[in-house]
Amino acid sequence: MLHRQLFVGTRLGFRGIHTQIPHAAPRRVGSARAWLEDSDLEGPRLALANARRVVVKCGTSVVSNDDGTLALARIGALVEQIRGLKEEGRDVMLVSSGAVGLGRLRLGLTKDIVKDPKNVIDRQACAAVGQGILMSTYDMLFQRMGLVCAQVLVTQSDLVTSQSYGHLTDTLDRLLSLGTVPIINENDVVTGCIGSDQHRVFSDNDKLSALLAASVDADGLALLTDVDGIYTKAPHLPDARRIAVMTPEMRVEEGATSSMGRGGILSKIAAARVAAHGGANTCVVSGYDVNNIHRVFNGDDIGTLFPASARPNKRHRWLSFCASPKGQIEISATARDEVFSQSTRGIVASDVTEVRGDWLGEAGSRVVSITDSSGAEYARGLAKLSSKDLLTAQQAGDSELFMKNGDIVLLQGLCQIPVDEQEPSPSKGVSISPWP
Q1: Of 96, 116, 151, 256, which is most buried with the most CB atoms under 10 A?
Q2: Contacting residues for 374 by C-beta, under 8 A, at least 6 apart
Q3: Of the residues 316, 339, 372, which one is the last residue of a structural domain?
Q4: Among residues 273, 291, 316, which one ends one of the domains?
Q5: What is the pTM of this model?
Q6: What does the pLDDT read at residue 197?
């Protein structure tokens, strides 16, 4: 069994595993017995304990040692934890980083060369080599556990258009229905990993895992990182306290970056908020003790919890999180109040006071942002008229329908999450304050 092999590996120098996974009879999620057993839990923690479909995201610092080699014992224990979730009757998806770092080590390149944002080709070459190493390791371990895993490599374009978005989510649904564990990663071989590109739907696997959790109706997301959760101050300070539950009125001013990979703690906070807005209870927790996966989905009070909001419909999720607007409009204050006051009223051409950009209308790329006078986006929707036709109707004072009510989504922080995007100082930790 893998238990014995993992502990033999530990004696040979592998590190990262903390404790064995308990092998008590699995608790079936959603059963009457499970609900009775969880009677001491409440709210989002209870929802996590009874989550039927979950996403686990592990970063480079979790799957790799400090020297860049695979943390074999930790990965093996991670796979065992996933088997435990499967035995409880859950669908499980794993979003795993680590390919670029593994490829860099195999190719003998230095970190400085690969991290250079201008050196796209070497980073893509590292991803090509490392993805095979990562997946072959996962495949061997999942086979030992009697499970089938599936590789899913995602690019930005897979989420930007509604058609490809639907194909991706339908494929993941089918893989889960077949009992597999999809292992998802960004296809860095072709995307180049340029985090400064503002048109990217996701900049790292933290955001990718959040988008997928929201898109495939996941009930819970565990974001495994190299810290125990979100703290009010740098964790090493004596008065620092763990934030057990992150509420919507809190904002992050500064935080610590991860020692490896692209996603720091700010990235995880932003991703967790996206997943929570998409209907998935999300927990940011340390991945160094992989038993935390079991504890998160057992409802234990660990890490930092981001409670889920009511889940939008699939079209609104795509519009909110993934769609790339082709233009902007401003509408009158009267129209704004009427459209967003729980009515069924859409936006007509005469409501529009400003038009920026070009789009094709109902037959083409037609996602349009609705902004205030400062250009800040607060809603977006699907246009029924092209920008040219809208301008013509607007100038004529026409009341032709421009956006149906059901094709408009009020963002409410879904896209413009107030997180400071500047690179933080590793020594200052995370502090919180109310949103303005």
Answers
A1: 96
A2: none
A3: 316
A4: 316
A5: 0.81
A6: 47
